[in-house]
């Protein structure tokens, strides 16, 4: 198998292992077993557990931040529909790779060093998207208080994390089903 394909296999298996067990609980032996390679091959390709985690984290973070940025940049979507559009983009991004989300919020990563810095950067970018979306929505309703906007952005981030965490354990719910579920919830809660 060409190296690029093997690396992709390893990153997918690593993403699931890290997502299920966190950085601290993930096993390189288990990742190698899932792919059908030896543990030394993982180290040959990625150098270390940190190297593999970073590859998995970059893949998840880049896909997510690009998808959310593209969705938010689309013209013509009214502010009250943007939360559902963003959720839909997240569900589509991770539909066949749900554990990737967990890497972005993994509480077991080291608190210093390269992994910590990369994880904080992705969270910072995602929190920035939440703040922009909250500002657009609140201001479209005549609410301009910056602290209110910060608070609703924080609430939104928690809602998204909770929804995706629930979704990970629902294998029968694909991206389209989750988007429809969230549409029903928002329509009933907020009249959107």
From TrEMBL:
Among Gene3D superfamilies, the record links this protein to:
Tetracycline Repressor, domain 2
Keyword terms, alphabetized:
DNA-binding
Q: Which domain of life is it from?
A: Bacteria
Q: Note the InterPro entries from the entry.
A: DNA-bd_HTH_TetR-type_CS (IPR023772), Homeodomain-like_sf (IPR009057), HTH-type_TetR-like_transc_reg (IPR050109), HTH_TetR (IPR001647)
User: Whereabouts does the entry annotate DNA binding, in residue ranges?
Assistant: 27-46
Gene Ontology molecular function, alphabetical: DNA-binding transcription factor activity; transcription cis-regulatory region binding
Q: Which residues form the HTH tetR-type domain?
A: 4-64
**Residue spans crossing the bilayer:** none
Protein name per its UniProtKB record:
TetR family transcriptional regulator
